[in-house]
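Support reply, case 0932

Customer input (verbatim):
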Amino acid sequence: MLRAAAAASSLARRGIRRLSSAASPAAAGAQRQPPPLDEGDWSYHREWWGEDEGPREGEHTVFRAHSEHGNGVVSVSAYPASRPASDQWAVTERWLQERNAILYPNSTGADQFKILGYQWRVMRFNDHTRQSVAKVMACYRSSGDAGMYLMQQPHCLPVPYVKSMVSAGLTALPSCSFDLHQAASGQNNMKILCIGHGGGSLPLFLASKFRGAVVHIVEIDPVVASASVDSMGFPSLPVKGLPVDSTQPTDGNELLWGGIHDRLFLHIADAEDFVANDSNVYDIVFIDAYDGDDIFPRKLWDADGTFLKNLEKKVHPVHGTVVVNLHSDSELSVSGENNSHVESILPLGKHVSRVCRSYKQHFGLAFTAAVPWLCNITLVACRDKAITSGARLGLSRRDFVLGKLLSNTDMVEDALDLPFPCLRYIKNGFVLVE
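Our regenerated output:
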């Protein structure tokens, strides 16, 4: 869930190192190429949000249904994307034909794949609250199983708050002595929990970047999950409580995802119940769970509630890390209270400050980073023993922790072949929760 702040009139493309291999066409093991643009860069935000909330050119609705789980009307709108340009589509078409030859080695080569185009797909609750944004590729095969394939581009993270969650969370893990390289290469296992599914961009990104990762996703609303599969190019996973019929051709998962889908597990469940009954111990947990009224449920941050007590037991005792997306402009503190802590992390309000302190109470250390261009912050809570160990050399606790995080940014970017720099998202408004 995200809230847009007033964007600057001119947004320059800043410091993007390179675009990672596209979700589909980059051959495994091939040397990295340095395309100049991140297709999810914020400079493209007007392609899916329009100008000052005005009419959005080319918009059309591709999904609309009513939710019975507090999200009101769930809709998905599509907008034309300018990247990648059509002269680059042939690379993906060749990749699809290579994938097809692997699946069907006895085929005559008659199958020809054609890209129909790329779109931004935006999920909304009640037509105004933006839940998520994803870039989707559409293609068809000239023979064989008829139908159109939709494939979400998992390495493209369009909105800044998701990049902030990824940057802050994944730099905290190695700072707490977790071997990120081993998990990325598949040499070590990694368990990830995502609470709140939306369009599925975050779990898809994580499963595609970490070969050793198993990603469990908890989503309370089957309508949201159906929208992600039917209209936002998420793999059509078998999920209890979802329709078994898919608009995708029957071989879509194997053709497009090549095993990534086998490491994704989508659960239609209440997060509190799921965590209470789950037997897994997770290395990292991502939480983005706002409802149609734009509310982060109290039971997910109540320090005395069962959710946090159980979650504390379900993350690794040494490096376990929890990352939470929060709206930073909610419920300003009331007059008469001691506002020193609130003011130190403005624009946080009383509600969000209490969330931060609750997570710190259960995990030991917590910090926040402000999300560029949006009224969101990223909260990270982790075990404090490893990340605070070592000589401070005159540094404050805040500067020491920040230094440890920043020292891992290059490693994270290289290990995961990120198309965006982590440092920007960690340093922006960094506050150690006291």
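We compared this against your earlier run and they match. Two observations from our side: The chain has a mean pLDDT of 85. The chain has 15 helices and 13 strands. Please reopen the case if you see a mismatch on your end.
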